[in-house]
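Example (one chain per record):
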Amino acid sequence: MKFELNRLAASLALVAASAAALPAHSAPEPSENATINLIRLLVQQGVLKPDQADALVAQAEAEAR
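Predicted structure:
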């Protein structure tokens, strides 16, 4: 589990670093939550499947409660 979280963190960092290179028209609808924005971007780039993203968001919301 820890390896998967580290891999996800590394992926999110790579996406954040490459986000500046994306054209403005391809950016997902922004959220006030940076993590949600990064997860949406990972889906848009094909790194995550939508159901995987939904599971990550649900997990994050559950942990936040």
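Caption: Helices lie at 2-19, 34-44, 50-64.
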